[in-house]
Fold these 2 entries.
Entry 1:
Amino acid sequence: MGTGPWVENLSKHWKISTAAGIIHGSTRTTIDIDLTILTEIDQLESILQVFAEDYISLQPDPLNFFQRCLFVSLQHRSTKVRVDIAAALSGFERQVIERSQRLIYNDVEVSICTVEDLIVMKLVAARPKDDLDLENLILINRNRLDLAYLRARATEFIEVERSDVPERLEELLRSLK
Amino acid sequence: MTEDRKKYIEQWWRKYEAMSKLDEEFPPSRESLFDLINSLHQHLLNSGNISTHLEEDVAHHTRMQEIFQKWEQVHGSRI
């Protein structure tokens, strides 16, 4: 996919979570890239402009959709790779970006969320394919996971009516010891 | 199963066992894995079927953003 100036401009503020799964050891192939950008609600239009030249929107009214749903799906014109862009407006996403690491993936340097944050996001998403990724991620990284951080973050979701997040984490940690 | 059939299958097992031993001795590189993934990815893109997952992914992102907004209401003030 394109690695033009937009990567340099945004590199401090974005993270790729699907590619992060591959880099952190879960080898499931992917058809899209999830990009989370540190921004403010009144900057969404300028974010779209950054992508306008190389990407087409998969939603008919991208700005309206972006402002309403805080994410938008784009497709790279030449490679046809889909890129889902989310605006990091919540403290949770902002912290994930702040903790992200600069890693190399196929000669391209990108900001990737930490494996602990990726695990929490996959626990929150809780789709069957996320569960499969979780098993791989925990199994491969189990000796270097920051368990205190992981448990603290997962526990935050109890008050968001998602007590399944810490429960599933403990189940996985027990079964994949 | 006939004896001929068994012998035929055994040949394949021997081949797979030999290949597994070779993999242990000469593990395939990460680069070759990337090539394989990229090739599968390209095939998928060329199949023209990319929009199949769009609806499902839109629902996923919508749900995630709702959860993050709820998280913000509960925990946002402590940041």
Note: Chain B has a mean pLDDT of 77.
Entry 2:
Amino acid sequence: MRALSGLPRLLRRFLSFRAQWRADRDLDAELEQFFETAVDHKIGSGLSREAAVRAARLELGSPEAVKDRVRDMGWESLRDRIWQDVRHSCRSLRRSPAFTLIVIVTLALGVGANAGLFALAHSYLWRALPVNHPEDLVAFRWSGQHTVRQMSSEHAFIAGRAGDVGGAFPIGFFESIRAGTDLLPDVAAVAPGGTFNLAADRRADSVTGQFVSGGYFGLLGLSAQSGRTIQPPDDQESAAPVVVLSDAYWSRRFARDPGLIGRALAINTTTATVVGIMPAEAGDLAQRGVASPPDIWIPIALEPQLRRAGSLVRTPGAWWLTIVGRKPKDVALARLEASLMPHLAAAVESYIGRVTPSQKAKVRIPRLEAVSAQRGISDPDPEAVFRFRLLGAICAVVLLIVCLNVSNLLMSRSVVRERETAVRMAIGATPGRVVQQWLVEAAVLGVLGALLALVVAGVVASTLAPLLFGTPLDRPAVLTWPVLLFLGIVTIVAVAAFGVFPAIHVACRGLFSPSRIQGGTQSRRQRWAGSVLLTGQIALSLPLVIGAGLFLRTLANLRAIDVGFDSNNLILFTLEPELNGYDAARAAALYPLIEQRLLRLPGVTAVTSSAFGASLLDGGVVVMFLAGQQRASMLSVDHNFFSTLRIPLKQGRTFAPSDTRPSTPVAVVNQTFARTHFPDRHPVGQTIRMGARQLEVIGVVGDAKVNGLREPSPPTFYRSVVQQPLPGRRVIVRTTGSASLVQATRDAIREIDPHLALQAISTQEDRIESRYLKSERMFAVMSNAVSGLAIVVTMIGVYALLSYTVAQRTKEIGIRIALGAQPRRILRMTVGSVLRWGLLGIALGLTAALALGRVIGSVLFGLSPHDAGTLSGATALMMLVMGLAAYFPARRATRVDPLVAIRCD
Amino acid sequence: MAGTSKSSALVQGTLDMLILKTLALEPAHGYGIGVRIEAISKGVFQVNAGSLFPAFRRLERDGLIKGEWRTTENNRRGKYYALTQLGRATLRRQQSDWEVQTAAISRILRASAGET
């Protein structure tokens, strides 16, 4: 096998000799011809043959000297020489597979992580919308103080906060600019529709929908993949009800049935005809990449039928429509704002008569702003951007560590290859040629690393996409020109960065002296350079390890947090029977029915519900009461809510089934509420004023979390859902722990009414993990992966530096041992010097971690970024790692056999 | 690098250009090129084999000229060199560079006092 594999190499060598030999022969023939032609020429000009031959010889000079000069030219072109170096590099890299593998893998991880993040940013943050001429799209925002907003619901109020902004407008404004403005001939409106109940084939689904005006798809230049889109005629109130499906929903629910177009679907209580399927790339314009596209698109004209009493089309004071337009290229945004502002003022004036005089006194028309919608209408979630930046910084540090590590390895390698280099120089290689060979070797490593980095980038991008951006619209694109360009540039910069240290080092050392063939002790400068690199590596790694510890503990703290109720073994789902045309009485009767049916399932111990709009953890409705002076969260709950969730009763009583009369409304408050509002009184029996209403406090319960895991319980009061019927409820099922009950629950509801769609059914634990711990989990996973890499790289760094130190100084160590040096002294000489630099790195790393701590302070929970336990734990871990990495080379140093060491050269 | 002669030393780096120019007129063999340079320059430049051969090799390696064995006018086999497409382009560029430079140099050399 071995002989066989050597055969091609022999053949190649033979061929190369042959080529050289042929070239030599060619040159001989040419010289001979030159000579003969010269003789002929001279005879032609009248010389005798002997004289001509003499003259020609004189002219030609020594043929051997000419041949030498030609050979000096070199037979290969630059391209040939680089190719030769590439082959030489591959051979020499194959000879040290561990070195090659470590360099390529660490480089791929460092570059790949950065390229993956870049791909994410490019896919979701920077890329223009996938529509026709996105650069011409404009969207609108309003801003201002004391502005008028939606006034249809009981608890809404006039926004009074400074700098209030929004992107939604009343329908009057949209109709007014659609009717006539020269500056914005092309304009469309879109609004989130929330969830709808969609039934087909006796199966109900909860779908997300978007209301669009007829011009929406035309404006964006999107056409249907089959059928048609929603068009301007669909804006007529008399138009036949139509619906357009997303590609994803069509696949998921109807298995891409081509016969679906033309079929009628039941949406809430209306029937609409499917007229088209949108292509997969048609997404959500408002939140590009950050949210899933809606399942269905519905004309705005259909909104009153679907929402009935809650229709916003029929509420002129509702600010709910996002407006997009296509602006002519020569029109400035400021001019557009100025020309549209009167339309907004007129739209507000037209409905302002309907509000109460006291509200009217406060009304200001907000200022209109036009913004480019090239990348989508809304700004990306600032929290996502922050998380993104943090990850970007971490990845950049990783790349830096990787560069330092590769530098260190390359430098150690250049020392080992010192002799090879010296031999090459001695037999006539120019310094340029030697440096070129090193550069080529670095480039070969870079190219291999970059190829592997592409794979890493793909994995990083597709793993992080859902963690960073919710459910993204499409898979992040890695194989695009900008990403490839970025990856290429990062690789080149990294290669240059890791190539520069060994080059400087070599230049300083005067490696080009043939005396180096001897090899021998290691110079002080070279040791110094390696140690500085190692120190940098450790100083960068330690903060990453500390960060990983902080994120892990944050996650553990959040998981262990007391939410104020027993969150284990709960199944949650949401029902909106009103969408199916249930009236209030029928809806109210539905829940006891569901309770009875579910209680029959084995494993279900209790069933309760709360109003859909507000629930524990997911946020209560914030109301102002006591003349607008105080804020509190409000939840409407069923009578057995507290017992089912195991929220302890502290004083008084909870709701009884008898608390049904609307005439004497009652409330249960939490302890924080009681402490805040009745500090010196017995809370039971007090009243809460809410506008014109008065609620009597009948009991006090323990605090339970309302706004996520992190916020402490706000002052909260509970009302009876029976006394205040609101559409939609979240049903809460207490089980004995069987996970299969999710499906059983689904089946039970279908038995009651197959047209009822269960929304968001999951266990409470899953809900907490997916909603409240997602980014924490991401940071924990990501920072642990990264710090794992940092630890491994540190180990490699310490090991490599120490091994090479020992290898280089073997002779010196041998002599010292022969002269009677104790192992302790040898250790101090080798390990001690490396570890001293390591400790300096740890000190620097700790300083950096302390300085940077406050950046991640907002992400942590339950501990400070300067947490002593985490800092000391991470430091101890780093020291342990360094000690472990130093162990084997150190043992080798103390076991040097003086006889072997001195003889080995 | 250029060969010296009784009359004049060739300016550094111009031999390649002269060879290219000679070959642009018609393909020629090694000796013929040397003779033609000498003849056209009216004997000002004489180029010896020690300079010509490395230059041929360099030009051939860089793809500017191409050698081919053919039969000469005296019924001998000789290696004839011809310009390649790349060589033609290189010559054009070098020639215009050269003209600009020599014009500038002679302006400088002819400058008299008082001129700035």
Note: Confidence is low (pLDDT under 50) at residues 150-163, 514-522 of chain A.
